[in-house]
Amino acid sequence: MGFNCGIVGLPNVGKSTLFNALTATQAAEAANYPFCTIEPNTGRVAVPDSRLDQIAAIGKSAKIVPTQLEFVDIAGLVRGASKGEGLGNQFLGNIRECDAIAHVLRCFEDDDITHVEGSVDPLRDAETIETELMLADLDSLERRFDQATKKAKGNDREAKEQLVVMEPLIAALRDGKPARTVEFSKEQQVTVKRLQLLTDKPIMYICNVGEEDAATGNAFSAEVEEWAKSQGATAVTIAAAIEAEVASLETEEEQSEFLESLGLSEPGLVRVIRSGYALLGLLTFFTCGPKEARAWTVHDGATAPEAAGEIHTDFQRGFIAAETIAFDDYIACEGEQRAKESGKMRQEGRDYRVKDGDVLLFRFNV
User: Fold this and answer.
1) pTM for this predicted structure
2) φ/ψ (deg, to 5) at 220
3) Which has more pLDDT, 279 or 293?
């Protein structure tokens, strides 16, 4: 599964450079003028996970298949997007289709790269986009509120459920607070999700700093990190230009040497993925055999049948049991056979909640 994450931000903050680095492609044209990205570019990237390599080595798997994430590079937004300014309507529509938002903020000075607002101020930029998203949500809810009110008078059950969540959402948005700050019961959260609100989506801020600040960050990124904490959000500091250079190197050894020379222990991609997983509450389980070792992604809390369904719907429909080995036990026992002999393999049923790192073999009958 993985997740679909929209990369957003004002023009010229480094969105397309980051996208190119993340996907190791030049699919998005990076240019020094607004709206160089007209259509959203979509790229899939493998999730690096050393556990998969270890499992494959023990299982002598012929093929290794990592799980993948999808990133969407969305056209830059400007003030007034909620009213259709710039590419506003298209921009907002593209965000609505994403599961999460990666908001790139410019945290570097460069006289050769123009800033659409005339100066570098990441908090102002963050608030600009958040305001446009809130205005778009408020406009959408106010229009739907009137329709739902009419239907509710006719005893429409769904309309009544919508009104219960719409009222506090509208109040929050009018007060300058995003939809994600409003607390609801689990049942109400289902109704809220159906509304497809932009500010209900989980968000992480990506501080794009210059090369000299890649390892330590700077005053701008520190400011964003503090602000993100106050918003209950995550902030990741990277240098998109460095990530692009890393992506252009052919071997892992070259990449490691280059990163070490800059005081970095891992590519920014890894940090973005880690933050994304935490953002959406995702976890990884593994399957292993002589043909292939593969990583799969499910939401934290997924049951064994739901995990089976990620592989094939027949596995979920005819689920009998999941033969389960924790990753640490799989490594310690050097594989399935010794894990089974030492009692480290468990038979789990329909109610079992999959844990991160589980190595699973599903038994099913259809």
Assistant:
1) 0.81
2) -65, -50
3) 293
